[in-house]
Specification:
Blueprint: E1 11-20, H1 26-37, E2 45-53, E3 57-63, E4 68-75, H2 82-95, E5 98-106, E6 120-123, E7 128-130, H3 136-148, E8 152-158, H4 165-171, E9 175-181, H5 192-201, H6 207-222, E10 228-234, H7 238-252, H8 259-267, E11 270-271, E12 284-286, H9 287-298, H10 301-313, E13 314-320, E14 331-333, H11 338-348, H12 358-366, E15 377-381, E16 392-395, E17 416-419, E18 428-431, E19 434-436, E20 446-448, E21 458-461, E22 472-474
Helix pairs in contact: 2-3, 5-6, 7-10, 8-9, 9-10, 11-12
Length: about 475
């Protein structure tokens, strides 16, 4: 008897499209589904959709040529629950295994913020949104990674304003490429017919080729229609970008703010969140334009390295419209007013990106620090030892503008910088003080301020004291 081995070969690509359309965008979800059906799935590419609409509920569909096939009817569900997203992605990967995965999240978007705007998605049935700063997206994607132990090859948002460094940092450990609009995008969204036709034409295309093509297709579709920016990021470059931001921020915060830096912020490319007209009061700016401005101003190794790290992270970026002529593909939060910074800084702290020095840099830039440090927490005491000793532990508080103290111990007491015993006026100028021999705690005399209220006394050394090295002050 001859035994032949059987090889189960996975398809090249599975596209998992999460269409959270239980809101006013439902009609556009229908039109995008029709676009997908002009291409449909085949043996090499599976296009699988979870579509939720008002009053109808959610269905899982396999997109075919000319029609879609219902796989499951889920009824009324909350598409802005991160566990619902996770369930769809796990189900899709299990039932439609492939060499590469293309995940698309479809709905409204506003970037990392949640209150008072949606972050991603709007589910009318539940009244919920899927948050970024509160960890919703991170929970879904980290749990998926635990399930697959592989990164999603191409992750995309078909939603406005999602190409932000704060969002990218939430995904950097769980996906390879991030495709999204940097700006408010047309309500028609991605050009699904062209994107999937390009993939079906050659399923062996990799994630970088797909992302570049999608950017081009979308820009071509909206040329002469609406100003817009689409881009694709290499997420494995995010850690290096953060390192270069931190390096430059640490250096800049050692100095004083100057008018040239303020002018850079006033003239940088901004990304409006409610209209198509950029202005200096916008909350979001183009990160690449900021890096170029800092490099032009400072021109040092740190700014050059930041520009280089940024350029390496941008796989592709294209724009249409003069309003975005300086846009380079990635947004960062930089409110035009301290008031807006103060309103959202607590939410910003929930982002992985907040582990960078960016919060501290913004606080330094505004130079209006009145935000109290976080209180220490989780104060605990160990068991009492045999010598009645015990150990206290706590989580450190966080301060946007910490004060650093340095204590020096002099081992050579002969190095005297100043020696004035405050017993006479030979080395001192004083106002309101008198030399008093009756109230001296030690020595023969002291400087006595008097004992009345609202004193206006002052005292200073007659000569300036210069410190070139540590030394001992005696007075």
């Amino acid at each position: 008897m001859l035994i032949f081995p059987i090889f189960l070969l996975a398809r090249e690509w599975t596209a998992l499209v999460y269409m959270a359309a239980d809101n006013g965008l439902a009609v556009w979800a229908d039109s995008d589904l029709v676009e997908m059906e002009t291409v449909g799935s085949n043996d090499e590419v599976a296009i699988v959709v979870q579509l939720d609409k008002p009053y109808i509920g959610a269905r899982r569909l396999l997109v075919g040529a000319g029609t879609s096939y219902e796989l499951q009817n889920l009824g009324i569900i909350d598409m802005c629950d991160w566990q619902t997203l996770l369930d769809f992605l796990e189900w899709g990967i299990y039932n439609y295994p492939a060499e590469k995965y293309f995940v698309i999240l479809w709905d409204h978007g506003s970037g990392w913020t949640l209150i008072p705007r949606c972050s991603f998605g709007s589910d009318w049935s539940s009244g919920n949104e899927l948050g970024i700063f509160n960890g919703d997206l991170r929970k879904a994607m980290s749990s998926l990674y635990d399930y697959t132990q592989e990164k999603i090859d191409l992750f995309a948002f078909d939603a406005c304003l999602m190409q932000q460094v704060e969002v990218a940092f939430e995904l950097k450990d769980y996906a390879k490429i991030l495709l999204a609009a940097q700006t408010v995008c047309p309500v028609q969204g991605f050009c699904y017919d062209k994107i999937f036709e390009y993939l079906i034409d050659d399923p062996e295309r990799n994630e970088k080729e797909m992302a570049k093509a999608a950017v081009s297709f979308n820009i071509e579709a909206y040329t002469n229609t609406q100003p817009v920016v689409y881009s694709a990021l290499e997420l494995n470059k995010m850690d290096n970008l953060k390192a270069k931001i931190d390096q430059l921020a640490n250096t800049m915060m050692q100095g004083l703010l100057n008018s040239s830096l303020v002018a850079i912020r006033e003239n940088v490319q901004t990304i409006p969140i409610r209209n198509q007209t950029p202005g200096p009061d916008d909350e979001f700016i183009d990160m690449g334009d900021l890096a170029q401005g800092l490099d032009s101003l400072l021109g040092n190794a740190e700014t050059s390295e930041l520009v280089q790290a940024y350029d390496q992270a941008i796989l592709e970026s294209q724009f249409w419209g003069d309003d975005y002529s300086l846009a380079t593909g990635l947004t960062i939060w930089f409110p035009g007013e301290y008031r807006l910074f103060k309103q959202l800084i607590d939410e910003y702290a929930g982002l992985d990106w907040a582990q960078s020095k960016w919060r501290q840099f913004l606080n330094w830039f505004y130079n209006l620090d009145d935000i109290r440090p976080n209180s220490i927490s989780w104060l605990t005491a160990s068991s009492i030892g045999k010598n009645n000793d015990f150990r206290l532990t706590w989580n450190a508080g966080f301060d946007l503008a910490p004060v650093t103290y340095k204590v020096l111990e002099m081992t050579d007491s002969t190095v005297s910088v100043f020696n004035g015993l405050c017993e006479d006026s030979s080395q001192w100028n004083f106002q309101g003080f008198t030399i008093d021999s009756t109230n001296a705690y030690s020595g023969s005399a002291c400087f006595f301020s008097g004992n009345v209220s609202n004193l206006q006394n002052a005292i200073e050394t007659k000569e300036q004291i210069f410190l070139s090295d540590p030394g001992v002050f005696i007075f």
